[in-house]
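Following up on my earlier thread - several people asked me to post the actual chain instead of describing it. Fair enough. Here it is, all 179 residues.
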Amino acid sequence: MRAVVTVGAAVLAATMAVKAQPSKTVTGEVSTFTATVEAIERSNREVTLKKEDGTYSVLKVPADAPRFDALKVGDKVKARYYENITIRLKPEGEPAIDTAGKAVTRPDGTTATTLANQRAITATITELDRKIPSVTFKGPNGWTYSSKVEDKKAIEKVKVGDRVDITWTAATLVSFDPI
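Reply from S.P.:
Thanks for posting it. Predicted structure:
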């Protein structure tokens, strides 16, 4: 959810630029943080991390991740979070998409694990307010999103009814070595 909300603002800016090009990638947040292990669910290999800002993340740890069995509540771990979004103006008549996927990778010889999520949907611009300026999108499963658009010239490049494919990618690289 955090990635969707954070990256949602980037959708607005990128959509405005998409008319001039077939697709646009917008890099979102990249952050490195230290977190404390708050809970460990060994049966399903989930670790709850409390970040320095007080927020929590639950990570599913792959079976081949080193040091999982040695983790204990109170350990501190280092993580890096990354997200981006790709937006593509959808050609007339092309079928809508609505997909989600996850991946877990671990480079050989390291104690780090990357946990990635990707979500792709087709959304339609349902409202434009050129005075504010703002845009509203509607997508599958009742998803809607409205926000201000910072680039006033860009909002002139789209119209209500335009469809775009929006792909969010978020990944967390976690080192399970206590710090």
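Confidence is low (pLDDT under 50) at residues 1-21. That should answer part of your original question.
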